[in-house]
Amino acid sequence: MPTPEQITTDIRNILKEHARLAVDALTLADDADLYQAGMTSHASVNLMLALEDKFEVEFPERMLRRRAFENIASIRSAIQELTEGR
Amino acid sequence: MLSGAAVSVSTAQATLSVGLDLVEVARIADSLARFGARFAERVYTQAEIAYCETASGPERSRRYAARFAAKEAAWKALGLDDRGHAWHAVEVVRDAGGRCAIALHEPLAGRAAALGARSLSLSLTHEADYAAAVVLAAREMSP
Q1: Interface contact flag, B82 A48, Cβ < 8 Å
Q2: Starting at the edge strand that comes first in sequence, how are the strands of the sheet with B130-140 ordered?
Q3: Which among A67, B2, B38, B84 would be 20 to 30 A from A61, CA to CA?
């Protein structure tokens, strides 16, 4: 199971590639609002699919809410839940 | 996606709210190329996919882009700010004459009804590089 630090690093790299943020994803605060930082809803779909590829998970319907992708910390929590027990 | 706005005007019988969205076709084409059917299936209904897939090349991407814009415009017209994942709840449907309209599904349909939305009107357009949609929502006036 990846460590929280590894997950965070991977999330930041995926954000940098897919989220088209107006700020640097590598230095963004964990609790910074990604939509406020410029992430569009289209970019959030790309982000979700890229996260699924990276972590070999599938986000269930109950997680497909704006809040799940609101910031790095919320994404990390979702990934940890989906990879728990591996 | 690139821009959007929602404004409201009141008539004697209803409040009209408009939602606008503009999508860069190349970005939708990129998502389709990168993620394939997974992107389409997460965002579009099976009927929407079936229609878009009857085209090929740039026209296929433009159809997907126009429908993406329509979904965003519908959320804006309804004044809901938590759009972004319930993509299947807004569907672009076509009648026999090719006229497009918005069909709402749950969980959005119930929320729209609770907001007093009586009808949604849709206009779609696309050029080579951009697709755009305007949705006009008519809502019952609050007493």
Answers
A1: no
A2: B3-10, B14-24, B130-140, B117-126
A3: B2
